[in-house]
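Pair request: fold both.
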Amino acid sequence: MFTAGFWKATTERALRTFAQSLAAVLVAGATTLLDVDWQAALATAGMATLLAVLTAVGAANIGGRGPGITETPTARKGQTTP
């Protein structure tokens, strides 16, 4: 969590989440861009982005405690994974 690589990946993930959730809100409304409640759409996308960043921070392997949410454990020498 304390590396530039972590924050670069988290920023990319957050930007994708923002764009995807904003697009979903706009499409779900099925209206023209002039009729969109932009404040609500941007607030929804912002909340989704915040949750993506918090998920990344919560899943960070701080102190070598083990694999993160999306990682699979690796076997040590002489051990097998279940």
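--- second member of the pair ---
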Amino acid sequence: MNGLIVLLTDFGYKDPYVGVMKGVIKSINPKAEIIDLTHMVRRQDTYEAAIVLLVSAKYFPEKTIFVCVVDPGVGSSRKALLIETSHYYLVGPDNGCLSLLAQNDGVKSVYDVSESKYRLRRVSYTFHGRDVFAPIAAWLSRGIKPEELGVRISFDDIVKYDLIKPEIIENTIHGSVIYIDVFGNIMTNISMDDINKIKLSYGEKLYIKIDDKELVCPFVPSFSYVGLGEPACYINSWDYFEIGVNHGNAAEKYGVKKGAKVSITREKLESKN
């Protein structure tokens, strides 16, 4: 084990929840190194948590322990999970938040740690981040084997999300918005590989339809290639197609929400009557 524990939650910073989780981890393993990935996932948005985990994990060393606590079903019959993948360990609720990374990295084994003897002695109904997930991660970082922490189950028996692949029809790519960052940049599920399939080159103008909204913007290396307040589309740092506004908020400007349908093409899309 490398002793690195990475926390991802929707707790924010007003309340003591994150700090208490760290206290539990350090009480069990004083040598544990803890990194905050983010605590500003949209409240109760397990799919957003899954996306953040998916795009971030590859920048961490092998055997990193990711603890995801975006848990609107806390206190219900949902399972608490420990998933061992090809390169990482994932700890969190059985609500899909771990599933995209697990599937992308390759699942080796899955354990139900809901009734683990390594939980805190008293487990509340409303704070499993403190009472279940933090101690499981801490004991794992100390070298306790996954099979000692829980009961092995099948990956088929847990909740899973799928990152739906875009469709390419006659040089038009049809995808969807999967994430909007704090700057209002609109990230889609259209990957760099999808863009390469239709052989787009920098400098080309694209016609983009987002639900019922249409815009034209250049395909460029970054939004800094256009004037202030102007839209641009580019491949973002996670290798996904994104729409931004230079010194602006694209999501607000165009009224875009996560889940919106997106089409991009070199030719203008016809508006529906």
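Observation on the second member. The mean pLDDT is 95.
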